[in-house]
Write a structure and sequence with these properties.
Shape: elongated
Number of domains: 1
Largest sheet: 6 strands, mixed
Radius of gyration: 18 Å
Order of helices and strands: HEEEHEEE
Distance between the termini: 49 Å
Oligomer: single chain
Helix content: 40-55%
Mean pLDDT: 87
Strand content: 25-35%
Length: 156
């Protein structure tokens, strides 16, 4: 009896992982698109990466910079200008990503009825002298059974 239940559980997890393989690339591209539309930049080390964790759901991680580092030949921006630009992009990213998480958690097939969708954004502070209080990580999560409740946290 126990072996039958365990076999059934493993088969269901494998089915969920197969469904996720179809959802993974479009989900990653969509996350990158939301970030780019806010004016932030996905870091060149890679684009977003998604993974399915059995019992939790889907986690997407990405590294971004709100403002590119100033080069030695660039005209320097004033600190107030950089702070204003980054604040606007942070707010825009939060609003767009919240709407994205609400819509995707409800419509993504690979997220089970009790599973969650989490977007983990690692923030690279390219101008620490101008913006000393920029969070290192932004985390947004929503459960499929309550998609309108998106938890938002900034970790410093």
């Amino acid at each position: 009896m126990l072996a039958t239940v365990l076999t059934l559980f493993v088969m269901l997890a494998a089915e969920q992982a197969d469904v996720f393989k179809k959802d993974m690339a479009p989900l990653q591209s969509a996350v990158d698109g939301v970030i780019a539309s806010s004016g932030a930049q996905v870091m060149p080390a890679g684009k977003s990466r998604a993974a399915y964790i059995d019992g939790y759901g889907v986690i997407v991680t990405v590294e971004i910079a709100f403002e590119a580092p100033q080069g030695i030949f660039d005209t320097p921006k004033k600190p107030a200008e950089v702070r204003t630009l980054v604040a606007r992009r942070r707010k825009d990213l939060q609003e767009k990503m919240t709407a994205f998480v609400k819509s995707r958690v409800a419509t993504t097939d690979s997220i089970g009825a009790t599973d969650s969708l989490a977007i983990v954004i690692y923030v690279l502070n390219t101008n620490p002298a101008d913006i000393p209080n920029l969070p290192m990580q932004i985390v947004m999560t929503a459960k499929k059974d309550s998609p309108q409740q998106v938890a938002f946290r900034e970790l410093f």
